[in-house]
């Protein structure tokens, strides 16, 4: 490393000095592709290192790359809830589906299937779950489209001891049913040896049944009954450890009372089931007895495993059954619309279409006049089920047929892409023998309500979690930033939450729907969500909106909300990953927050290190702050990861009924049971931190953003957390921070302490300082003067010429004259920028290349380029985020990449004649820049085609230098105007005015991103190797070193190899080989 021939900054860069040795070492270690952990331990052996007298805090990297963390599913029971106690006030919350006709259209059934619509499922809590009675409005994505339901506090009531006992018994039954709604054991049937059987013993055939046995192979006796395994046995009733501490109750509407009649009927059904499922259990009712008249009580089937024939046909409509003819792996349920409208019975002849499904001998066995009956059809098609039913309770062929419609359990009701299109086909009605249909205890309306309840609870939990996160952040930012989550005391969630759905979000901004739209013709890209809002529902929504507006005070970060943190709706967006398949996700906000983090970290590092710290050191230290590892660490330390939703909800995997918990928590912890734990990858955790910052930036005042950055340690101004210690309220604390912004409209006062300017040496126009700098440079120049030729091709005249040129630099010029001359020379550049510099030496440094001898006087543009890059990225991201609200994250990324890329900035430099002001002394570089400028000005070009044309050779240095210079000029403007947002924004907008318009209308798609999207399974491995460039030394060795990036890509068994001066150039070669379009 100490060899003079090693030049990490290029052949024209400065040689290694004591101040740059640290950066050289960092760059050297970064090129090592073997295990460099030991070297990294040396670099990080101390938490603080000395750089030019400055103590810099270094962030320790994790011991190994973090892949994932196992996080518990968030629990809302603590500290809000306690178990329900008798004779004390309890709070009943209910949610109701829309009108029956609308639900029937969404569930793809007839409206007559829903008769008991005055019932619903309620939740009883010991305490309120939100401040507002209107808790939230959430979407449900059903088979035929989306509907919105509202969770509200229905009433406050007191349960007696008997009522509480009944409620707890009914709750256990409802909880068990909600875990596996259509489990065959719920209907009293089982499957063993490929055959169906009933739990109760066979009985004699009842009067009116069809007595003949069907012909079948094998034994006619009942198969051995297997032991029934209940998946609910892994749960234990323990409200204190349950994720949701509440009780299910059946509620009678509109008065909102507990339906005790229905609850007793359900408990009776459960008792009969428990008896029947025992190994030696006997059925409580004898099938030979007359059908009981009270099978249906309060809309609930009170008898276990009762056939539909046990209910009078006038009561069939609205019930739910399971046909015994279904395969054992079919969990389907069928809603009944009533008796067959054509008056068909079991002994009625079937239609010709059904007859075609029967064997020829069966059709010919009946006379042409008599025809094949429905009973014969079912006996032939479902031999085993028919036989078991006949032996068990007989089949009455004189009963009318029941009209049934399959109804979905809607397990994917939380998935935004479910129910996307309206089906053209009509509802399919099937006529069935009532004796071959077993009743479910719940009617179809309650059955559908209970099926959707796990999804409702999941969505409600997400809403309340977002509200709680808002309270948590408010406490941390304004009250106690250093306390743990358990030490913070904050209020209940506010409520009045409107969850975003595909009716309130632009469909083009929902990635799952984008992929769906891509497979449709453009004229047919729409979603058929014809949901209607009743007057009552509309009144609830308007009242909730009015309540939110009334609670908003005059203070806070947003005048329209009166909040000190973003609205919980935006926090939900910032904590929802793409894997959740929701209407919102953090991708757009993460893009915005990423630019803010990069900008804040750049200011932090730039103001921390001394002026002699080079770009390599600045970049390396900034990476410690903006890396995923650091953001992941912050989220874990502050407990923010607990509010992250990174999975697609599946009731079968993730649902635990209220009041219940896993009985064996040790096994669940070891196996990472999805009902208790969820895997969250470290990148998702880091992205959520950036998205949270993006939400603050987009919706709140800058002082709130600065306060959050201070909490994350991304600013020197930590006193923001305790501003105005004499303030009596959060509003007064907030007002002090606002004043810092209003006085300057700059981020510097918010992020940097008053005594720490960005670059004190550069902004101090002091003759003594300049002379001191000349003295330092004189020593460097003297050491660098060659005294003998280094190669055989050099001669003494060349040495003398260089020595005279270097010696001429030692003649000091008065500072005032130097600045006046430079300012006159750069007046044209200031006109192009639309900005007059107060400290012209900043602009001089911004245009000075490292190869120029002027770099010894003013420094080169590398440090300013580091700052300007972050400022440019921040300003551009803010503008495109606001101007293009419907662009998806991929489009925003492509647009930003195009605008801030080196190739685009080089084009801007040429288009505005900024390239003519570059100060450098390499003739080859001037030649390449001239060639590049000629191509830009004379030929029509595509952005990425032009980059590809220049990236694979030494000519790439031409646009790289020009792009870096533009970034350095932006950095110089930022420092000179003290970070004034209006000034720096106007300069950047003027420079990129044409590009904002052109690229905004026709986004140049990054070919590398397109390559990875087109070939998602493409695997790329890269390595770097240092080659010796001997051409400059006549092929005699000892030449300059250049680094070449070598990559190898594999896809579908094919291997591609490419090289380039950097990783991007090599990837562009791979994209060429794969045939990726370059625009």
TrEMBL record:
Checking CDD domains in the record gives: RIBOc (cd00593)
One matching Pfam family is: Ribonuclease_3
Residue span(s) of domain RNase III: 571-697, 826-978
Q: Which cofactors go with this protein? A: Mg(2+); Mn(2+)
Q: Name one GO biological process term.
A: RNA processing
The UniProt keywords, alphabetically, are:
Hydrolase, Magnesium, Metal-binding, RNA-binding
Q: Which InterPro entries match?
A: RNase_III_dom, RNase_III_sf
Provide the residue span(s) of the region labelled Disordered: 204-225
Asked if Plastid is a keyword of the record, the answer is no
> Which SUPFAM superfamilies does this UniProt record tie to the protein?
RNase III domain-like
Citing just one GO molecular function, the answer is: RNA binding
| SMART domains assigned to the protein according to its UniProt record, in alphabetical order | RIBOc
PANTHER family listed in its UniProt record: DICER-RELATED, ENDORIBONUCLEASE DICER
| Official protein name in the record | RNase III domain-containing protein
Organism annotation: Schistocephalus solidus
């Amino acid at each position: 490393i100490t060899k003079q021939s090693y030049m990490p900054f290029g052949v024209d860069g400065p040689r290694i000095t004591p101040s740059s040795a640290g950066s050289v070492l960092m760059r050297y270690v970064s090129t090592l592709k073997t295990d460099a952990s030991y070297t990294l331990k040396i670099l990080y052996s101390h938490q603080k290192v000395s750089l030019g007298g400055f103590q810099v805090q270094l962030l320790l990297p994790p011991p190994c790359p973090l892949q994932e963390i196992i996080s518990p599913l968030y629990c809302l029971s603590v500290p809000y809830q306690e178990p329900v106690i008798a004779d004390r006030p309890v709070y009943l919350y209910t949610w109701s589906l829309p009108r029956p006709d609308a639900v029937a259209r969404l569930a793809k059934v007839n409206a007559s299937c829903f008769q008991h619509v005055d019932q619903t499922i309620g939740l009883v809590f010991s305490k309120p779950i939100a401040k507002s009675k209107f808790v939230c409005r959430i979407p449900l994505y059903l088979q035929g489209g989306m509907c919105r339901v509202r969770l509200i506090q229905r009433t406050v009531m007191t349960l007696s001891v008997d009522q509480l006992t009944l409620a707890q018994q009914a709750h256990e039954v409802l909880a068990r049913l909600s875990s596996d709604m259509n489990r065959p054991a719920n209907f009293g049937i089982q499957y063993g040896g490929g055959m169906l059987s009933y739990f109760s013993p066979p009985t004699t055939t009842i009067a009116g049944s069809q007595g003949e046995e069907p012909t079948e192979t094998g034994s006619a006796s009942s198969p051995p009954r297997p032991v029934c395994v209940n998946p609910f046995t892994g749960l234990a009733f323990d409200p204190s450890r349950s994720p949701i501490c509440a009780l299910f109750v059946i509620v009678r509407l509109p008065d909102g009372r507990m339906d005790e009649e229905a609850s007793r009927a359900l408990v009776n059904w459960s008792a009969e089931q428990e008896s029947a499922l025992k190994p030696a259990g006997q059925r409580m009712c004898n099938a030979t007895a007359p059908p009981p008249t009270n099978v249906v009580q309060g809309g609930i089937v009170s008898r276990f495993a009762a056939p539909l024939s046990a209910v009078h046909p006038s009561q069939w409509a609205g019930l739910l059954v399971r046909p015994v003819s279904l395969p054992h792996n079919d969990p389907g349920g069928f809603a009944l619309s009533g008796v067959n409208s054509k008056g068909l019975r079991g002994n009625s002849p079937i239609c010709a279409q059904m007859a075609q499904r029967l064997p020829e001998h069966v059709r010919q066995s009946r006379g042409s006049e008599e025809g094949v009956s429905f009973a014969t059809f079912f006996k032939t098609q479902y031999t085993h089920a028919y036989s078991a039913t006949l032996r068990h309770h007989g089949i009455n062929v004189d009963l009318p047929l029941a009209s049934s419609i399959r109804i979905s359990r809607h397990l994917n009701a939380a998935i935004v892409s479910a129910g996307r299109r309206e089906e053209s086909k009509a509802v399919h009605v099937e006529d069935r023998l009532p004796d071959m249909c077993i009743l479910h205890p719940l009617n179809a309306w309650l059955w559908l309500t209970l099926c959707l309840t796990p999804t409702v609870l999941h969505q409600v939990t997400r809403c309340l979690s977002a509200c709680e996160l808002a309270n948590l952040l408010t406490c941390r930012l304004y009250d106690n930033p250093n306390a743990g989550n358990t030490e913070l005391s904050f209020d209940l969630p506010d409520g009045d939450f409107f969850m975003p759905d595909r009716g309130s979000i632009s469909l083009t901004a929902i990635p799952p729907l984008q992929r769906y739209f891509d497979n449709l013709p453009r004229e047919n890209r729409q979603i058929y969500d014809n949901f209607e809002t009743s007057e009552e529902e509309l009144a609830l929504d308007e009242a909730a909106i009015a309540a939110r507006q009334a609670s908003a005070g005059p203070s806070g970060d947003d005048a329209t909300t009166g909040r000190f943190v973003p609205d919980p709706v935006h926090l939900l967006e910032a904590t929802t990953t793409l894997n959740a398949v929701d209407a919102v996700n953090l991708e757009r906000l993460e893009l915005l927050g990423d630019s803010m983090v990069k900008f804040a970290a750049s200011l932090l590092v730039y103001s921390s290190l001394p002026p002699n710290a080079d770009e390599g050191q600045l970049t390396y230290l900034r990476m410690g702050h903006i890396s995923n590892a650091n953001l992941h660490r912050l989220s874990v330390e502050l407990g923010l990861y607990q509010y992250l939703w990174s999975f697609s909800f599946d009731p079968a995997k993730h649902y635990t009924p209220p009041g219940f918990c896993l009985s064996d928590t040790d096994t669940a912890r070891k196996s990472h049971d999805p009902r208790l734990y969820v895997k969250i990858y470290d990148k998702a955790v880091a992205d959520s931190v950036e998205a949270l910052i993006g939400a603050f930036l987009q919706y709140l005042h800058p002082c709130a953003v600065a306060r959050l950055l201070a909490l994350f340690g991304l600013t020197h101004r930590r006193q923001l957390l305790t501003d105005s210690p004499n303030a009596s309220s959060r509003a007064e604390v907030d007002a002090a921070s606002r004043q810092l912004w209003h006085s300057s409209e700059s981020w510097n006062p918010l992020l940097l302490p008053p005594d720490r300017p960005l670059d004190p040496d550069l902004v101090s126009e002091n003759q003594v300082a300049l002379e001191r700098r000349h003295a330092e440079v004189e020593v460097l120049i003297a050491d660098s003067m060659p005294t003998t030729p280094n190669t055989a091709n050099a001669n003494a005249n060349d040495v003398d010429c260089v020595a005279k040129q270097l010696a001429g630099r030692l003649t000091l010029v008065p500072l005032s004259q130097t600045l006046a001359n430079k300012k006159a020379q750069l007046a044209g550049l200031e006109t192009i920028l639309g900005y007059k510099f107060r400290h012209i030496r900043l602009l001089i440094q911004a245009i000075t290349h490292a190869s120029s001898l002027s770099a010894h006087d003013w420094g080169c543009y590398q440090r300013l380029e580091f700052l300007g890059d972050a400022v440019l990225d921040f300003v551009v991201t803010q503008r495109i985020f606001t101007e293009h609200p419907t662009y998806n994250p991929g489009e925003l990324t492509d647009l930003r990449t195009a605008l801030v890329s080196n190739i685009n900035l080089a084009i801007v430099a040429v288009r505005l004649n900024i390239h003519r002001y570059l100060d450098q002394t390499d003739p080859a570089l001037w030649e390449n820049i001239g060639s590049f400028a000629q191509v830009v000005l004379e030929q029509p070009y595509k952005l990425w085609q032009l980059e590809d044309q220049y990236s694979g050779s030494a000519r790439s240095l031409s646009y790289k230098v020009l792009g870096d210079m533009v970034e350095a000029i932006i950095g110089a403007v930022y420092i000179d105007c003290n970070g004034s947002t209006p000034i720096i924004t106007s300069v950047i907008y003027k420079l990129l005015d044409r590009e904002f318009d052109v690229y905004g209308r026709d986004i140049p798609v990054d070919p590398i991103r397109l390559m990875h999207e087109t070939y998602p399974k493409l695997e790329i491995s890269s390595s770097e190797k240092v080659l010796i460039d001997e051409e400059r030394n006549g092929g005699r060795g000892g030449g300059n070193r250049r680094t070449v990036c070598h990559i190898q890509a594999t896809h579908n068994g094919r291997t591609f190899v490419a090289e380039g001066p950097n990783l991007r150039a090599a990837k562009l070669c791979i994209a060429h080989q794969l045939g990726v379009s370059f625009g």
